[in-house]
Description:
The protein is of the alpha+beta class.
Amino acid sequence: MTYWFIAAALVLILELFVSTIYLLVVSAALFGAGLAALLFNNLTVSIITAAVLASVGIAWANRWIKRHRRPDNGDASLNDLDIGQTVHITRHLHGNMYEVHYRGSIWQAEAANAQTASQPQTAVITGKNGNILLINLH
Length: 138
């Protein structure tokens, strides 16, 4: 009879370490099975109570998580604070590749409009490709 409550407490302690809502639901179902064991003193009723409460609780938790999940922003550049910042061009490397000074260090940058600019001094960051800045020359 008290085994249900001990199992509920152990699963609750495990849930504190793992931090998932599903173990919390299982712990509540085991507690409910312990209450059923106290009321009816029947192992079958306790097992059925635990199974039903766990099934219903996990289904509810799954729906709740899907409803409250934040949408995944596929474009990480929306949160990139570097985009739109001005960089100073230190030298032209080759083709559309430049060496730029930004945030106190030297970066490699790839220009989108290298043919249109003659002697660019500054550029604006439009994105990143790994550790290479994507820039638009002024």
